[in-house]
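so my prof wants the structure for this chain in the tokens format not the other one, which i didnt know existed until like an hour ago. anyway here's the sequence
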Amino acid sequence: MRLFVLYDQQGRIVAATRLDPHPRFEPPLPEADPGQSSAELELPAEYAHLTFAQACRQMMVDTTADTPRLIARPAGSADPRNV
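here's what i got, hopefully its the right format
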């Protein structure tokens, strides 16, 4: 699953959309606010079983890598949408 993600400085996903090809539909892309970044990222193969919603809740962006990539959220870290 390919995603367009908007994320904060800690790598938390604040908005996302699927970029799976569709012949007649191009999804709207969220715009970054100050302090946010965006990237097109592939969901790692070991997480391919996740739904889009699960991926957005269980994954985050690794901001320490040379290029952004999706990684699993650390165990016990709170999803900011549930706080």
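also thought this was worth mentioning. The chain has a mean pLDDT of 87.
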